[in-house]
Amino acid sequence: MRTTYPQISRQGGEGLATLSAALASKQDKVLAINEVKYPESIVRFGIFEVDLESRELRKHGMHVRLEEKPFRILEMLLHHAGRVVTRKALREKLWPDTHVGYDQNLNTAVNKLRELLGDSAQCSRFIETLPRLGYRFIAPVVMPGRSSVGAKKMLGVLPFENLGGDPEQEYFADGLTEEMISHLGQLDPRRLGVIARTSAIQYKNTRKSIAEIAAELKVSYILEGSVRREGNGARITAQLIEAQEQTHVWSATYDRDLRDILSVQADVARHVGRALSLELLPEVAAKSPGFDPTAHEAYLRGRFYFGQRSEEGLKKAMASFETALTIEANCARSYSGIADCCGLLSWFGALPPKVSGQKAAVAAKRAIEIDPTLGECHASLALVHFWYDWNWEAAEREFLRAIELNPSYSSAYQWYAAYLNTQGRFDEAQAAQKSARELDPFSLILNMNVADPLFFSRQYHRAAQQLVALLEHEPRFFPALFQLGRVYVQMEMYKEAIDAFERALQFSRQQEALPALAHAYALTGKAQEARIILEEMKNDKTGRYVASPMIARIHLGLREFETALDWLEKGLEERSYWMVFLKSDPVYDPIRSHPRFRELLNITGLVS
Predict the structure, then answer these.
(1) Per the confidence metrics, is the pTM higher than 0.85?
(2) Could you report the per-residue pLDDT of 475-488, keeping only the tens digit for each?
(3) Are residues 52 and 159 in the same domain?
(4) Shared-domain flag, residues 164 and 265
(5) How many domains would you assign to the chain?
(6) Are 397 and 125 in contact (CB under 8 A)?
(7) Which of helix, strand or coil describes residue 142?
(8) CA-based nearest residue to 261, from 222, 235, 281
(9) CA within 20 to 30 Å of 202's CA: 278, 564, 571, 603, which one?
C-alpha cells in the first residue's frame, strides 16, 4: 500500500512536550494514575461480587440468595484470601457453642457455598480444601486497599549467561531462563511470585549489583546461573542469593545430556523450594521427563522468537514449535505456543481471524488434553474463547483456571484484564493489571495497558497522563502513540491526535494507526484525506487481512453511520477480534442507540 498521508519530519521524542502541555491545559484535576476507587463494602472475584454491608452475593450483577452460614464462611475466606482458614477458626466464629455435629454443619455450609459458586472440591476454582485443616480462597480477589497478588516472597531469575560464546546459542540460554521461570512459578504460587521474563531480560549482561537489581524488581531473592553447550551435553550452574544480605542460600552445578535438561530444571526448582521453605506441588516434584534434545532445541527457539513479539518473530516461532511437534508430538507447551502465535498474527494482519482462530482452538485444546495442569495452556484456550468464540463465561473460567494453576504467569493477568475491559468491569481490570505489573514491572505493554480501563471508563485525562508519562521515557513506542491518539480523539484534541497517529506510523507501519488517522482527519473536516486512506484500505492488494471494524471507524468519522454498521456486520462475519470492544469502546458512542448496533451487541453477547 503506498503512503498518501502527509510525510512526517518529527524525530524521536519531539512533540511530546507539546502533547503534554496540551493535556495539562485541558485538565482540571488529575487523580494519581494507579488510584482505584472502590465502594468500601464491595469485594469482587470472577463473575461474582459480594456486598459486605448489605450481605449480598451477586453474579453478573444479579442477586444470588445465600444463607447466613455459607455467607459468613465466604466472608471469612475473602478477608483471608490466599491464606488458610482453619476448621477450628470457623467453628469458633460461627458455631461457638456447638460441639456435636459441627463437622457435618460446616461441610453442609461449604457445599452449599460451592454449589452457588459453581465450584467443586475435586476441581477448585475458588475454594480449596486442605484435608483435616481447613479451606483457602484461591481466586484473585479485588478488595478495597488490597493488592490482588498479596503478600508473598518475590524471586527474580536473571538471564542465564551463555558461556559458550556462540551468539547462535543465545536462544538456548534465554529459553532455559524462561523455562526456569515457568518451573519456579508453579512451586507454591500463593507464597512465591516470580518476575516475568520480559522484565528479567533487561538485566542480560548487566553490570548492576544483586542489591540494585533486587531493589528495582522489588524481590527478596535472585536466582542466577550460566550454561555451556558442549556437543550433546551441557553444563548448567545455578545459585540462589538472598538479596538484602547478598548471601548464597544454595548453589549447584549439573553436567547433563541435553535429554535431561528438564530434570535439571525440576531439580533446581525443588532445591529453591526447600531453601525458601515452600510447599512443593506434587507434579513439579515428581516430573522430570526425558525430552528429545532436537525437539527441545526447536521449542526453545520458538520461545526465543515469540519473545520478540514481531510478525517475523511470531512466524519463526510458530515454525519452530511445529518442528518440535514433529519430533515430540506430546509437547503441550509447543501447542500452547502455536495457539498464542496464531492469535497475535491475526492482530498483525498476517492471518484472517477465522483461519487463526480455528488453528488456535485446535492447538489450545490439544495442549490441555496433553497436560491440563499447565496454566499457560488454559490461558491459550481462554484467548480462543475471548477473541474468536466470544464465549465470555468460558473465557473467564479458563483465565481464572490459568491464574489458579500459575499465579506467576503475568500474561494470564494481562489478557484477563483485557477481557474485563470488554465486559465493562474496569475496577477488576485495573486490579488484574496491577497483578501483571507486579510480576513484570518493566513491560512497556503492561505499563501502557494501565490506561485502558481509564480510557474505556471515559476517564480520558487520566488515561492521557499515563500514556504521556510512558512516552516521555520511550518516545518511539508506537502502540502507546496509537493509544494516546485514540484518547485525544475522545477529548476532541484532534490536532494532538493526528500528531500522535502520524508519529505511530513514522515508527511502525502499525495497521490500526492508519484508519485511526483517517478517523481523526474526518472529524476535523479533512474528508478528502480521510477518503484517500479509506479507498486504499478497501482496495488493498497486499493479501493481508484488513479488519472491517477499522474501516467502519473511518465511516464513523465521516458521519456515514449506516455504512459504518455495514462494515461492522462484515466484522461479525469475519470473527474480527476488534468486535470484542463493541460494548466498551467510546468510538461507537455515536451509534450506540442505533437498533442495528444493539443487534450486534445481542449477537456477540455483549449486551449490558
Answers:
(1) no
(2) 999 999 999 999 99
(3) no
(4) yes
(5) 2
(6) yes
(7) strand
(8) 235
(9) 278
